[in-house]
Amino acid sequence: MLTGSELLAKVKELGDLGKSEIVRGCGYVSTKKDGGERLNFTAFYEALLEAKGVDLQAGGQGAGKVGRKLSYTATVQGNGNLLIGKAYTALLNLEPGDEFEIKLGRKQIRLVPVGADDESED
After folding, report:
1. Cα 23 from Cα 41, distance rounded (Å)
2. Does the predicted TM-score (pTM) go above 0.85?
3. Cβ atoms of 92 and 86 closer than 8 Å
4. 98: CB partners within 8 A, 6+ apart
5. Helix/strand/coil for 110
6. How far apart, in whole angstroms, are the C-alpha atoms of residue 40 and residue 43?
7. Listed residue (12, 44, 17, 14) closest to 28, CA to CA
8. Helix intervals (H) in 26-59
9. Angle between helices 41-51 and 4-13 (to 10 degrees)
10. Tens-level pLDDT at each residue, the chain (122 residues)
């Protein structure tokens, strides 16, 4: 699979061909279990954007998929668990093992880091 300036040069060289032929010509091909050919368009376009200087990781901050917006809502699951999700814990720089005190209000749940000032609002 070509990357960087080699990828850009090959795409320019193959410019008159169709998309599938360009992806194949740049080496973004894998073999399926049944022996068939799979063109890896996503990997090709990501490499092409990177070669052109577009950083796909810059805006994401590691919080969820690129382009996905957080809803800031959570739903109680069928087993009674309340899942917050990786995107939110990443935004807060939380690490595995971080502990929280659960504060129950009339219609709210607050998670306060153990040892933190309860009144602080960030």
Report:
1. 7
2. no
3. no
4. 113
5. strand
6. 6
7. 44
8. 41-51
9. 110
10. 899 899 999 999 998 999 999 999 999 999 888 988 999 998 998 889 888 887 766 554 544 445 567 778 888 889 999 888 888 888 888 888 999 999 999 888 888 888 877 664 44
